[in-house]
Amino acid sequence: MTVSSPETVSTHVAGSWIDGAPVVTAGGVHQVVNPANGSTVAEMALATPADVDRAVASARAALRGWATATPVDRAGVLAKLAELVDTNAEAIIAEEVSQTGKPVRLATEFDVPGSIDNISFFSGAARHLEGKATAEYSGDHTSSIRREAVGVVATITPWNYPLQMAVWKVLPALAAGCSVVIKPAELTPLTTLTLARLATEAGLPDGAFNVVTGAGGDVGTALAGHPDVDVVTFTGSTPVGRKVMAAAAVHGHRTQLELGGKAPFVVFDDADLDAAIQGAVAGALINTGQDCTAATRAIVARDLYDDFVAGVAEVMGKVVVGDPQDPDTDLGPLISMAHRDKVAGMVERAPGQGGRVVTGGVAPDLPGSFYRPTLIADVDEASEIYRDEIFGPVLTVRSFTDDDDALRQANDTAFGLAASAWTRDVYRAQRASREINAGCVWINDHIPIISEMPHGGVGASGFGKDMSDYSLEEYLTIKHVMSDITGVADKEWHRTIFTKR
Ligand code: NAP
Questions:
Q1: 156: Cβ below 6 Å to ligand 1?
Q2: What EC number(s) is this enzyme filed under (predicted)?
Q3: Which of 256, 96, 266, 252 is nearest to 184 (CA)?
Q4: For a Cys-Cys bond, which of 96, 163, 357, 407 suits 361, CB 3.0-4.6 Å?
């Protein structure tokens, strides 16, 4: 796989990486399209279910060697991978921007450095597995804990942050000693393939990191329901995540699901209004709102409501929508025309359900799947735009009467991925962080993530963690080893079974 410049078609058709090498599969040719202008970025062969079998067999064959490599050896390979991603950052940024349409500034300052830091983190984590102390808990035995790689990991990732989502799944698995087969979203496979190629270059054994590209309905289904994997991890929408879980359950395989979100953004009446306005726009529009933790439901104290709505509309009006390659662009296109139609449809239906479009609500006159930053005030709690995931540059606003009402509204959702509370009152901040049901609650900010801390949701947002030491738990089993230290044949506990021999 070579990196194409943003506007040229790659001549390479190897859409899979199996057993440490590019593979031209027989599932038909797929065009990766730049959503900013509809141009073809790359053409590649899609995998078939038979290729999934091959990739899983390759991962199975590589497992023992990688799982029994010393922690320092695993860490060394992962550290080298971080170095290679850094060295190749410019090309990776170009790939990520061209396949997703995300602004080059975002890819340069967030996606790629964040991925490098995450890879480095897991390089270190490979040497820091923890467990209970070895001891004679029974008096007659020494008990110790072994933490072992769970085995072959099947993982499926979405299109919104293709590189980061691949890193979040693959790196903790490799650090734990697992081997991996990943299926990236069909729309955005390029940087995952590059990551696998660089991992091989870094010294990862062939077969430890395989990529199969193709649509969810065939390649994804074949991978999620494969009998010879040991755990299935997934990032994507809630309905698809539940299908993946059902497919894995047929074989009793472990799952980890990072699903959709509908993050509340609660502004109490003592908040710094300017900070809340700026934070709301940034939190709602990051990655064109295609972020599972994006601020989507602003819930604002009655006294601040009108000023908040006016301030957000003003800042949204200044956001630069346009060519993702231009460093001055703030907002790129949505991932596809089909997705833009979905977002536009939800916005168009909102007024009929009580919402007031304050700004945006239209597509700019640009080629590509662009959509203007949109603010919808006075939304009804029962409305679709308030309840369902939009995954676009759209913020809804409602007011609240008192703190109980604010927290009730924040929790009035099936999702529970992320939330924020804006206040200068330490007691309110503590209460909000305790009472909001979400995997992450920010206080006076919304969006920042950090490799040392976990990411993952509750409720319809799934379960399990990405990032941090906690994510290693998804890829490890705990084995208790209990050794008799008495050397006595006639053990006391045998009397529960028989008294005389
Ligand atoms: P999606 O439609 O659920 O797809 C996610 C992945 O699943 C893609 O690779 C897709 O393949 C594959 N897939 C589709 N149907 C499948 C099936 N029946 N069996 C197995 N795999 C299948 O999600 P998306 O539209 O790509 O991404 C947006 C969603 O991801 C949003 O809901 C967002 O909130 C969520 N997300 C969550 C997090 C988190 O950490 N919680 C992070 C990022 C995104 P194809 O697309 O190639 O068909």
A1: yes
A2: 1.2.1.79
A3: 96
A4: 357
